[in-house]
Amino acid sequence: MDRYNKITNKNNREIVLLKSFPCVWGKCSFCDYIDDNSLNEEEIVKLNKEVLKNITGEFKVLEVINSGSCFEIPKETLNDIKKIIQEKNIEKLFLESHWCYKNRLDEMREFFGIPIIFKIGVETFDNNFRNLVLNKNANFKTPEEVKENFQSVCLLIGVKGQTKEMIKRDIDIVLKNFDYATLNVFVNNTTDVKRDEELVQWFVEEYKYLNSYDNIEVLYNNTDFGVGD
Q1: What are the residue boundaries of the Elp3/MiaA/NifB-like radical SAM core domain, all occurrences included (predicted)?
Q2: What are the structural domains of the chain?
Q3: Please, where are the H alpha helices in the chain?
Q4: Which of 8, 56, 158, 197 is the most buried (most CB within 10 A)?
Q5: Within 13 Å, how many C-alpha atoms sit on residue 140's CB side?
Q6: How many Cβ atoms are within 10 Å of 115's Cβ, its own excluded?
Q7: Structure confidence at residue 146 (pLDDT)
Q8: Residue 181's closest CA among 217, 133, 229?
Q9: pLDDT in tens, 70-127
Q10: How far is residue 111's CA from residue 116's CA, in Å, rounded to a whole number?
């Protein structure tokens, strides 16, 4: 499992994939990422300390991801991150959060004391598909609700049941409303959700121009950030 990398093609930054406690929701139909979770705090903290040793502060920007939300990272690890931010003069932080924590984001801003870009996996702005098919449990109705709290959204692309029109609408919403976005092309995993190859091929061709957008990152494989397995 690769847990540290430097991203140098867009938004130069260091990225770490940390272990954490179980995801607060943990029931998304497409996600087996939560298998990286643990209840053994000593084990989590020990591994995370080793991963965090890699951070140099080279770009003054750090992204911290885990198999859930930043609020599930142990307190000791959060303290370790804060110490590294101060020692390495890191000026900006990217963190992930589930929709259910939307009213607690300022806790992290106050704790770390530097600007934070919060990412959220909305997967799609189609409310029925997001909640009834993907089982995301993110019950917002409009992009404006998301924009009030999050600066970056993650979309899921190429799942059976999606349509071209749905994807077009999602991308239009992202381009008009958000400073950053990650588009995750779905890769078959251990869940029952399946990739739509025809839809993926259409997306790759139709939206290849997004590769030139500095604020849009398209992950054609789920390890394109250089972390994960």
Answers
A1: 13-206
A2: 4-219 (3.20.20.70)
A3: 41-52, 75-87, 105-112, 127-128, 143-147, 164-177, 197-206
A4: 158
A5: 20
A6: 11
A7: 98
A8: 217
A9: 999 999 999 999 999 999 999 999 999 999 999 999 999 999 999 999 999 999 999 9
A10: 11
With a threshold of 0.85, does the pTM exceed it? Answer: yes
Separation between Cα atoms, residue 22 and residue 68, nearest integer Å:
7
Q: Which residue ranges of the chain lie beneath pLDDT 70?
A: none
pLDDT at 1: 87
CA 178 to chain centroid: 14
pLDDT of residue 153: 98
Instruction: Name the CA radius of gyration of the chain, rounded.
Output: 17
Collapse the DSSP code of 79 into the 3-class scheme (helix H, G, I; strand E, B; otherwise coil) and give the result: helix
User: d(Cα 8, Cα 134) in Å, to the nearest integer?
Assistant: 32
Give which of 147, 94, 101 is closest to 125, Cα–Cα: 147
Of the candidates 137, 118, 102, 131, the one whose C-alpha atom is nearest the C-alpha of residue 65 is 118
Rounded Cα gap, residues 25 and 46, in angstroms = 25
Please, which residues have CB within 8 angstroms of residue 135's CB and are 6 or more apart in sequence?
Answer: 27, 28, 29
pLDDT on residue 164: 98
Which residue is associated with the tokens 């009834």? 132
Distances 207 to 66, 104, 188 between C-alpha atoms, Å: 28, 34, 21
